[in-house]
Amino acid sequence: MKKYYKYELSISFVTILSFILLIPFIFVLPLLFGDIVVNDKFFVNFILFYVLYFFYMALHELIHGIGYYLSGTKKENITYGMALEKGICYCLTKTPVNKKGILFSIILPFITIGVITLIISVIFKLPMLGLLSIFNISGCSGDLVMFFFFLTRDKDIMYTELDDPTKFAIITEKEMKSTKWLGLKFIESDNYTEDILKISDHRRIVISTFSKIFMIISLVICIFLLGFYI
Fold it and tell me: In this model, does residue 37 exceed pLDDT 60?
């Protein structure tokens, strides 16, 4: 009989990992854009970066949705939103997705507007695109945790999301209670029925103290990077 296993993504762990991923780029940027220096357009560049980064985050979630769609999920079963009380934007699927589909959807933004666009920015000397790509790679920390988690799971698993965008469930006939993964917390398990795991559209937006601190730290890092490399 199939069972579901609920997990929760640790926002604290993901945030720390995000900054860890960002640190190497601080030292690599001079090698990538060494001929670009501070100029009198710093504040214009700074405002432009933040505006573009907002759309880049939206594009990130849209690409997740495209990944779901290309994997067979209907458009009406894909929903987007923001949970600023957790410091995240999200794209959720209302119907279960197989292993291949979730792996494809999770990694798609990392590759397309992270790795590929970073390579393009270096080739054509586009520092703004480079910074957007770097921050996207850093912001993919949660995606990477989940990608490698699912990469090690059996082929028969089905993935489904819940009302809380930091929680998800795996549907499988295999025993997974003893399965542990860094950055993920096991919550519970039970027998699976089609109506037991459902999600609704998310509309509530709340900014918590955690989110404010996260945005302030990100702002400081942006100023540092833009000040030295643009």
Answer: no
